Structure prediction request, 153 residues.
Amino acid sequence: MAKPSVELVRALRATALRLREGARYEWGHYGACNCGHLAQTLTNLTPGQLHRYAQQRGGEWRHQAEAWCDTSDQPFDLVMGQMVRAGLHVEDIAQLETLSDPTVLANLPGGPRWLSANSRDDAVLYLETWATLLEQRLQPAAPTEHQRFVGRA
Prediction:
């Protein structure tokens, strides 16, 4: 799962909110799909720019992520670089495309279940659940009884 960061949690929540509020959603469009919406948030690029960059190489988001080169100056590699610097792993991007991260699915409100990759509502639910999981990992753990005892000395 992604490396927890405040930036990534905020980006996931902002993306979910934008989708919830009716932003254009088109699963077959590089800039308006699950990954495209998160990329918009993290890069401030438009859906059209993301789509053009992705078409230069071709392949779905997961293929683009697998082909990512961190030393390339290709536009889509630069997009991927920003996403990785925000805390995402290549696997996270592939799983976001299909809404399939097992940890996210296991923690969905109402219980574990499969989601439809091309459903706006399911994408919003996935993004919000993922943000909550990362947020929980950011919070410092409550001190153990031993740590509290040692702290008194």
